[in-house]
Amino acid sequence: MADPVSSRRFDRAIVEGSLAHAVWRLAWPSMLQNIIGGLQGLVDHAMIGHFVGYTGNAAVGVSWQIYLVVIVFVSSLISGMAVLVARFAGAGDAEKVDRVVYQAFLTSVVLAFGVLAPIGYVASPWLLSFVNATSEVQREALPYLRIMLCLSVGMLIFFMMGGALRPAGDARTPLRLGIVLTVLNITLNVILIGGLGPIPAMGTTGAALGTVLASGVVGAVGIGLLFSGRLPVHFTWHMRWRPDWEIIRSLFRFGLPTGFQGIAMNVGGVLLLHYIGSLAQSAEAQAAYTVGYGQLFVFITWTSVGLMGATAAVVGQNLGAGRPERATAAARVAARLGLGVALLVGSAFVTVPDALLGLFGMEGVAVRSLGVQLLQFLAISGLFVTVALVYTGGLQGSGDTRSPFYISVVSQVVIPLGICATLDVVKGLEPADIWMAIVLGHVTRCLLSVIRFRQGKWRQIAVDISPATP
Questions:
Q1: CA-to-CA distance for 401 and 394, rounded, in angstroms?
Q2: Buried b vs exposed e over 122-139: b needs ≥16 C-beta within 10 Å?
Q3: H-state helical runs in 75-200
Q4: What is the end-to-end Cα distance of the chain in Å, rounded?
């Protein structure tokens, strides 16, 4: 049974108060953090483009593609940790919460230095060749990718902090750490990319160093906060450094499907770009897709991802508290919030598309026409993707991490790519065919996610670990 004193660390309003208030209070810090992080990426690319040129931008873009695939898989244990933390926090069992997060921290450190660093250093040249990077791009990308992969421990700890604190009911501390990370990263990149005083200009290498140094500092601050006793999760110097294999198996049991899901989504996106590149107006279509889907549609997905994490936390905590009906209601509440934002942003896609595209210099007649067309499709797609992500969060928060993986493979890989392949053979692809394939993929993901959640089989998923041994 949970200790009544230690259980006071956790916000009981999540399992007792207004669901709309609980979901929103957990969601908005994540949304804001996503926006700030996105702005940091824009600043980095602008600086690299100015001091290095387009090869530097290409090098960072290619390296991040590789890095994200690798880091998403490795950090899947953090997704598993979030499932356990939410369930135990809802039950008020602080001791199990602390043990789970501590084991996730130890595993992250081992993976960073024992797996990512040596394999990343050796495999980086092969990975860059695999994605067909030109020799000029590879020259800029190799040191960047090696630094990112070999010194990723700070980033993993930063992800771990968010994955531990949000399901425990604290979404503001990860936001504060994210703001510090962004400000520090931009400051270091200003110094290291272009050079300052005695520090020479390092270009893309400086961008990588700025990222790992900033994340290392923030990671150290995060660990210090865990030892301070001021957060819902506590570390103590009495904790043992030996691995707890039962917890580690649970981390990967719940986390690995989420990692595979992330890989499948990235692979599907890369293959979709292949079809966009095969169009008669391939350059214009790629530009429209990059701006419309990659820069404007994110205003819907940033909100939806924040709601997804909030839904996962609220569902998990209410299951831990023995209140499955509140868990069910939480997904409906979050979906309504998401639909409101998607309607607002989608209406802008329809009413002022030229103004939005003009912000990114989309001036040509052909590219502007394709961009307007894509935004009309995305205005519809946003309604379905936000509901899909909310119910994905509900499934993942309950411990059902396999269903979202299967659903993503079907809806984000099989259906859109199957439609594109079929139409390409039957009549030849047009841009509207690809845009429609994207929408149908999101519609399918929405319907399958809602149906799977409403089946309620997640109520029977057991999430527990053995008591601590002396």
A1: 10
A2: ebbeebbeeeebeeebbe
A3: 76-90, 94-111, 117-130, 135-150, 153-165, 172-194
A4: 17
Distance CA 372, CA 341 (A): 20
Averaged pLDDT, 435-449: 95
Q: What would the two tokens of residue 228 be?
A: 């301070």
pLDDT tens for each residue of 15-28: 888 999 999 999 99
Radius of gyration of the chain (CA): 22
Beta bridge partners of 199: 196
> Do 104 and 251 touch, CB atoms closer than 8 A?
yes
Q: What is the DSSP letter of 74?
A: H
How many CB atoms neighbour CB 448 within 10 A? 20
Using CA atoms, how far apart are residues 268 and 454, in angstroms rounded to an integer? 27
Within 10 angstroms of residue 217's Cβ, the number of other Cβ atoms is 16
pTM for the whole structure: 0.85
Per the DSSP assignment, residues forming a β-bridge with 196 are 199
- What's the pLDDT tens digit per position in 330-377? 999 999 999 999 999 999 999 998 888 887 666 778 878 888 999 999
CB 31 within 8 A of CB 303: yes
Question: pLDDT by residue (tens digit) across 29-88?
Answer: 988 887 777 766 666 666 776 677 666 766 776 777 677 777 777 778 888 999 999 999
For residue 44, how many other CB atoms are within 10 A of its CB? 21
How far is the C-alpha of 375 from the C-alpha of 154, rounded, in Å? 37
Q: Which two tokens stand for residue 331?
A: 């997904």
User: What tokens does 20 get?
Assistant: 């709309």
Q: Can you tell me whether residue 199 is helix, strand or coil? A: strand
Residue 3, class by beta-carbon neighbours within 10 Å (0-12 exposed, 13-18 middle, 19+ buried)?
Answer: exposed
- Assigned token pair, 371: 């961009």
CA neighbor of 287 nearest in space, from 373, 397, 188? 373
Number of alpha carbons in the 13 Å side-chain half-sphere of residue 295? 18
DSSP state of 17: S
Rounded to an integer, the average pLDDT of 280-305 is 80
| Token pair in block for residue 357 | 């595209």
